From TrEMBL:
Organism in which the protein naturally occurs: Polypedilum vanderplanki
Gene3D superfamilies linked: 1.25.40.420, Potassium Channel Kv1.1, Chain A
PROSITE patterns according to UniProt: BTB
Coiled coil, from the record: none
A Pfam family assignment: BTB
Record SMART domains: BTB
Sequence ranges assigned to domain BTB in this UniProt record: 144-209
Protein name: BTB domain-containing protein
Superkingdom as given in the UniProt entry: Eukaryota
Amino acid sequence: MLFPIVKRKFEWKIENISKENVQIKYDTPQIQIYCGEFMTKWSFVFFTRITSQTNHLWVYKHSIDCNYFDGHFRAMVKNRAVCFLDLPTTETKKWAEFFKTEDLFDESFLENGTLTIHIDIEVKQVKEVPAVPDLCFFNDELYSDFQLISSDNKVFPIHRVIVAAKSPKLKIFIDKFAEQKKIILEDIDGSTLFELLKFIYTAEINYNWENILSLLKAATYYNEALKQKCVTYLINNLSIENIFEVLICAEESNEHCLKFECIKFIKNNYFQLRIQRQKDFDDLDKKFLYLIMDSIEMENSSIIKYTSK
C-alpha cells in the first residue's frame, strides 16, 4: 500500500544580498518530511553569479527512503519568478533556471536586502518500501558474541555484526568493550531494551502507552528507524489525555517534528485543554507557553521557515 501524497510549504529567507557581498551559493539544512513511518530528507541550493545571466535552484535528496518517493517542487519569489523541479526516484539531485541575475538586485524582488523564496513541496510515494526480513537470532544465545545488560540487570545476548550494523551508537560501545564482551546500559531498562533489540533484529515493534515514551527516548539515542516509527505513532495518537506528556518527551528527545505537532494540537484544542487539564497547563515550562502563544498568533503556523545569513 502506497502512502498518500504529503504537501508542505517552505519559506526561505536569504539576507544581506547586495552586489558588494553576494555569494555564489546559498543552501538550506536538510528538511525532514515524514510519509507515514518513513522520513524523507531534502535540501535546496540557490546558485548565483553576477557574470551569468540566470540564477539556478537545485534540490537534493539525502535519505535512502527517498529512493521510493518522488519530489515535486515549485519555487516562487513574489509571484514574479517561478520555477518547477521534479525529482524522480532514479535521481538524487536536479536543477532549474530560476530568474535573471539582474533581477536579483531589483528592489521589487528584495525587502531590505532580503530575498524570500516560497517553496511548495509535494512528496509522493511511487514504490513500496521493502520490508526488512525477520532474523531468527533475536534473544538467542546461539552464535551470540556479546551481552547488553539493562539498568535493571537483565542480560541480552546479541550478535555484534547485526546490532552494530543497525545502531551506530551501540557499535561504538561494542568496539570499546570488545574484550569484556559486555556492557551495562544505565539509561535503558530491560523491557525497553527488549523492544529495541527486537526491532533491530526483526523490524517488529509492539506499541502501547506504557512503553512508547521510553522507546522514543531510547530510539533517539540508539536507532533512527525506530525513532521515526515512535514519532509517527505518537503524532497519530495525540489526545487531550496525553498531549503534555508527549510534548515534554519530545523536548527531552530533541524531536522537533513531534514538538511542532504537539504545539499545533494544543493550539487547536486550547480552550478544551484549559478546562480539562488546567493544572497541567499551568505547570508547563514557560518556554512551552511562549511557543503555544506564538503559534496561536501566527497566521501561517504550518509553514517551515529558514533564514540564510
